[in-house]
Amino acid sequence: xxxxxxxxxxxxxxxxxxxxxxxxxxxxxxxxxxxxxxxxxxxxxxxxxxxxxxxxxxxxxxxxxxxxxxxxxxxxxxxxxxxxxxxxxxxxxxxxxxxxxxxxxxxxxxx
Length: 111
Description:
The structure is a single chain. This protein is mostly helical and about 110 residues long. The protein has a single domain (about 1-110), classed as Four Helix Bundle (Hemerythrin (Met), subunit A), CATH 1.20.120. It has 4 helices and no strands. Helix 1 packs antiparallel against helix 4. The chain is elongated, with a radius of gyration of 16 Å. The N and C termini lie far apart (about 40 Å).
């Protein structure tokens, strides 16, 4: 009986971590999309805020993600960091371009 409980608990943990990664990746994608929208409107500070939120979610998702999804999440995280760096310097065009690249990676990770 103890072994059965341990196996069930282990399976639930594995299932919950993949759901956790998916939720954070989806949240990162939404924030990244908002960063792009605000970047195209020229709102650099709001772009940076959304890019930071997206980066936080993507880094959390990358911890538990696996395989190709993990690679895309990590690549998206790098693009988000570039977006934050350029946005902080006031380079809205470059920041928006990096946010767009992050969106593409995060979309690929969420497939």
